[in-house]
Each structure stands twice: as structure tokens, then as C-alpha cells.
Write a structure and sequence with these properties.
This protein is α/β, with parallel strands linked by helices and about 400 residues long. The chain has helices at about 70, 80-90, 95-110, 150-165, 185-195, 210-215, 220-225, 240-250, 265-275, 285-290, 300, 325-335, 340-345, 350-355; strands spanning about 1-10, 15-25, 30-35, 45-50, 55-60, 115-120, 135-140, 170-175, 200-205, 255-260, 280-285, 310, 370-375, 390. The protein is globular.
Length: about 400
Amino acid sequence: MTTISTDYLFTGVGDPLKDAFVSFDEQGTILNYGFCQPDIIINKYYPGAICPGFINAHIHTELSHIRYSKIAESGSGMASFINSVAGVRFKTSIEDRRKEIENIISYLFKQGVTGMGDICNEAVSFSLKHDIPIKWHHFIECFGTNPDTAEETAKKAEQIYLTSKNLRFQSSITPHATYSMSSALFKYLNDNLIKKNDMLSFHFMESPEEIELLTTRSGRLTDLFKEWGIQTDYLPESIKSPLDLIMESLPMENRLLFVHNTFIDKISLITILEKFSDPWFCLCPVSNLSITGYLPPVDLLRSNTDKIVIGTDSTASNNYLSMIEEIRVIQKFYPVIPFHELVTWATRNGALFFGWDKLGKIAIGGTPGLVWIEGFIQPDIPLSKNAITNRIV
């Protein structure tokens, strides 16, 4: 047994414990925790704070070979970002891509990530994930605007899904976004490949260009699609907003993760909460600032739901790829949110969404991983740029 102590112990649930300890065995199983007492033998003291391992709810490890600083100007918009990624995505060799994916997974593990929801459009990352103790959920993502190839597109996704399942990864097939799916593809997925207990992930209201495309069939994203030979007639006349599309196309009984939500409005949010049985909302603030220059309305989300999780997106849109940096950005723009609540979003909530009972919180019998927040001062003082995270267990 090893026992460590810290100034603030964030358990993933509620306020932190001040001057606290946590004990664990060689497998990282939590044996005990609480306030320090004179009779407790401490093996090591970690100044600052300790929290459970992070759950990165939204990442694209397949894009690890792409660096945002090299493909787009900050805040240049979604159309520019999509065009840039499409132009370079497959220009790197498989060997080099695999090496970058492996490096990113190792980097995230060392900073304290113990679980991830990884968006997968291919199987390139699968064989790299069994040798590092991170829990994975693979969202096998499906997109395509041509109704004539809907079945072919879906069956390709199904083959990737079966490969993932055969390798014993938690997996589900999921639609991509409001602007990238034909009605025929949505219908095929809903009728044939999406089961009622599947967890889904959906990029939602990430940019003004997405909203403009769906409301007026115009704007920079529309222009980009036309350059690619994609006409907007893949969108039914009945679709006049992102909300219209999800109400018509997404299954309402599934546990569904709406990702980004940068420009979500109150009407859309309230409708989602009323109509969908288990909606969750993922924040990726660093990515949002990089692509559009805006953050989601976190205060609106927080005042209406507690089902909020945090992700990093990918190196294609995020120069940091750090869960503590995501927390730091939210804290900077929304200082009223208590730090322990942000930790809950980044740990326990993610574990709840994915159904990982032993992760996300410090509890006896759990194996959440333990993370040292080095440079943490106290809960009511904002994180400095010098605050970093390192894995303890």
C-alpha cells in the first residue's frame, strides 16, 4: 500500500478535501482516502492538488499528424479548417501517422488521461492502444452527402466497427454532423446500424457557417461544398436550422453527446433537453477559439443541465491538447464556475457518460488513476499558466 497526501484532494464529487490523503495498492485501486490524521503514515506529499484521472470525452487521435499552427490561421472559420484538413490528411505515410498517434496517446496518458472517446474514421489507431492503460470508446464516425452511396458509406463504417469490436474495444457507429449527412445516410444508420443502447457523438452548432448553410443554403461552407461538387440539395427543404435537422434525423432514445455547441441557443438547448432522453454536452474550448474565435455559452449550458463533459479535439485544432488547459480556458472566461465543478466535468461526468464505474472519481475500490495538479494554489485562485498535470498512478 502507498499513501500520499496533498493540500487539496478533488474526488470528482463536490468540494475538495483540504490537507487530505489517498491510499492505493500496486494496481492503483483506491484503498482509503480522507483528511490527514497524525497516525497516518504518508509516503509522499504532493503540494498543490490531486484529482482523479481525466476522461477526454472527444478526441480525434487519427489527426495527430496534423498541427493546427501549420494548416490554418487562428479564427479563420470552419470552412477554412475543413478545407485545410482535407488537403493534408492523407499526405503523410501510414508509418508516420501511427508514430504520431502513439506519441499523442503516450503524452495524454502521462498528463493524466485515463479514458477517451475517440472519433474513428478508419482502424489505423486500433493496434496502438492495447499496451497503455487507457479506457477507450471508439465512435466509428459516418458521413456522406451523396444519397446514392449512403448504403456503401454505412457498410464501410460497419466494417471498421466490427474490427474495433473484435479487438474488444467499446464501440458504436455514430453520425458526424448537421452539415455532412444526407437524409438517406441518416435513415440507413437509424434503420440498420444504430441500436437503442448505443452511445452517439454528434458535432453540433460548431460554427456560424454550419448554421448559415442549414438556414439559408449560403455562406463559406456552402461555397466550399460547391467547389467540391456538392450541392445543397442533399438537405431536405424541411431543414431550416441545425435544430430542425437533429429533430428529424437523430434517434431520441440514445445517450447522445452533442460536441462543441459553440453557437447553441436557448431554444435549441431547451428543446434538446425536453425531447431527447439522455443528452450530454461536450466542451472543447481551445479548439473552438482556434477555429472560430468563440467559446460555447457555458453559462447557458450550466444553468440548464449538469451533463457536461470536456474534450480536447485534436492537434489539428488544438496546440495544447491538455485537459488542464481546457479547464484553464473555461475558468478564465467563466470565473464564477467553482474549480471543483470543472474537475467534475473533466473526470466523473465523462466516466458516467461512458459507463466506466471505476473511473472518474476517488472512491474505495475504484481505479480512477491519480493526477497531480502541480502549481495549484487554492480553489478560489485561478490556475496560472505554470499549473501542469502529471500522472501519479
